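Fold tokens
===========
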Amino acid sequence: MPQYLYRIRPTRPAMLTDAPTEQEESIIGQHFHYLQGLLAEGVVLMAGRTLIADERAFGIVIIVAASEAAAADVVQNDPAVRHGIMTADLFPYRVALWSPTGPKVDDEGD
């Protein structure tokens, strides 16, 4: 199945430096749960974000979808994108190498 990458960036970079508002924090939680659900369904291959807190910060999500239109639906239904606290760019993508062991992550994605 085709793979896609979407890059997300906060629309208000101060969310990373000055802390998110209550509304932003709620939407970020929805975003994380949305991605967890897609992971369980086999749509998300991986998701993560840079650990910098300036205008260069971004996150990526690598997904599988039957078509670019289906991938665009995944992006547009992401609560962070739908509620406008993040912008997203979608790219056709192909994982070339994947570690069989992968990184160890905790329940919060750290």
